[in-house]
Amino acid sequence: MGAVQEELRRPAEAGRGWYAVLARAGLVAKGASYCLVGVLAVKLAVGVGGETTSRSGALETLAHHGLGRVVLAALAAGFAAYAVWRFVQAYAEEADEDDSVAKAWGKRAGYAGRGLVYAGLTYSTLRLLFGGQEQSQDEKAHQSTAVVLSWPAGPWLVGAGGLVLLGAALWNLYRGLSRKFEDKWRLDKLPARLRMWGSRAGVVGHVSRFVVFGLIGVFLIKAAVDYSPQDAIGLDGALDKLARAPYGPWLLGLTAAGLVAYGLFCFFDARLRDVSV
After folding, report:
1. Residue 1: its pLDDT value, please?
2. CA–CA dist 28, 85 (Å, integer)
């Protein structure tokens, strides 16, 4: 058992080998999925087709195109790589000297949670690849919220989930405006001009994620307060709310362009990130 643990830790601590391949492939797949969502929403905003959809919905749209299944297979592999990377990171991450026990375990839980999200996205992509269909994120949000609301203290749990999402939104805003994501970048790996554009994409992309996560969190809290699961929304619902707001095409277009920027940031992140634990 000790030998297996050492085999997991060594490449993770160095940020090289198979561990680095998992991380970078996963970040590329993550970026591609956000670009797909953003491009579809931008097309809708400018009136040339498109739709407001989640990442699963964007992948379902992709499945109907000629080379779509090839791309889906590549994305499924990338999402799986991202999930495994985060699970290994949760296991191998060493706490900083000034980290409390609670903070250290909170980081591990965060990595594991991201791994679970991408494990689910891998499953959804494979279902689409083999001819299955996926519910929209709105439908999933309605169903899961209805289940939780039926539990003892259900409204409190749903409200807490909304607060967590608001916290994630604010973290994205802070991480973007402060350019904190650059802390993990190896700044000697690209020319200064390319790093500059990667940083700008990171700022715009994180602000866009703040808007989307903030809307999802607010409507989840509303679902808890009103005891109405139909108020809960996913990414597709958040974009649809923007589209229906005053100046909707402008709001949707700006936010969607920001999601494309976040996807491009993920590509830069895959190249520049120091993935060692």
Report:
1. 45
2. 13
d(CA 61, CA 65): 8
At 67, list the tokens.
């080379």
277 part of a folded domain: no
Strand partners of residue 185 = 273
Q: Evaluate whether 20 touches 11 at the Cβ level (below 8 Å).
A: yes
Number of domains in the chain: 1
Give the pLDDT of residue 137: 84
**Burial class for 74, CB neighbours closer than 10 Å (0-12, 13-18, 19+):** middle
Length of the chain measured in residues: 277
Q: State both tokens at 241.
A: 């709310």
CB 158 within 8 A of CB 223: yes
Q: Are 196 and 253 a contacting pair, CB within 8 Å? A: no
239 within some domain: yes
User: Is the distance from CB of 44 to CB of 252 less than 8 angstroms?
Assistant: yes
The CA distance from 163 to 221, in Å, is 7
Q: Count other C-beta atoms under 10 Å from residue 125's C-beta.
A: 30
Q: What φ, ψ does residue 227 adopt, rounded to 5°?
A: 50, 50
pTM score of the predicted model: 0.91
